[in-house]
Design brief:
This protein is α+β, with helices and mostly antiparallel strands. The chain contains 6 helices and 6 strands.
């Protein structure tokens, strides 16, 4: 999510009431690996508008905006159990998905997290993913953002079951119409066989 990313530029241009933005937590100490520097930022969010607002505010910081990569992931659990989630690699291939995997494994919800990386000149290979997730995990734990009450799994299952039942009822209705159509087609064929060319009904032989 560098400033060259069109999605970030668009987000930064959106008007946002910063008074209503959640508190943004940042790493107390950067993680440094072979001169590459990693810093995490996270905030509790309730909707996509807040996600965009948090990112927009972060990008107003010149140092953060100039990071080589700003890897982002968010996960929001709605009151009905529906989950909104997404991620952005910002050029660090597959890093966003791994960051999203982390917050899923930690069962953290209603969160947006951004890990800024400033490249130090040495390629880190797969170690960069470890550094990104380690930096994110440390912040979530230190800021106690990992203590957010998880969604009620039983409620979620009940909600999915209710939706499945509604779908099943619709399926049964479609199935009934299909059977009725087959029966009408059979009756039409039988009637056609017993009608002469002049349209008069013929008694079965």
């Amino acid at each position: 999510m560098s400033v060259d990313n069109p999605k970030v530029r668009q987000c930064a241009l959106e008007t946002c009431d910063e008074d209503n933005l959640p508190c943004i937590h940042s790493s107390d100490r950067p993680l440094i690996d072979r001169k590459s520097v990693f810093v995490a930022h996270a905030a509790r969010v309730q909707n996509i508008t807040q996600v965009k607002g948090v990112i927009s505010k972060l990008m107003k910081n010149k140092k953060t905006a100039k990071a080589t990569h700003n890897i982002m992931a968010y996960r929001i659990v709605m009151p009905d159990g529906f989950v909104l989630q997404g991620c952005d690699d910002d050029g660090e291939t597959a890093a966003g998905g791994r960051l999203l995997d982390l917050i899923q494994l930690m069962k953290v919800q209603n969160i947006v997290i951004v890990v800024s990386r400033w490249f130090g000149g040495t390629r880190l290979g797969a170690d960069r993913f470890r550094d990104i997730n380690k930096c994110a995990k440390q912040l979530l734990e230190e800021a106690k953002l990992d203590k957010i009450k998880p969604v009620d799994d039983n409620k979620s299952r009940r909600e999915h079951k209710r939706r499945d039942c509604a779908f099943h009822g619709g399926y049964e209705m479609v199935k009934s119409f299909h059977n009725l159509g087959n029966e009408l087609h059979r009756l039409h064929s039988a009637l056609k066989d017993n009608v002469g060319l002049n349209g008069c009904y013929k008694e079965p032989e």
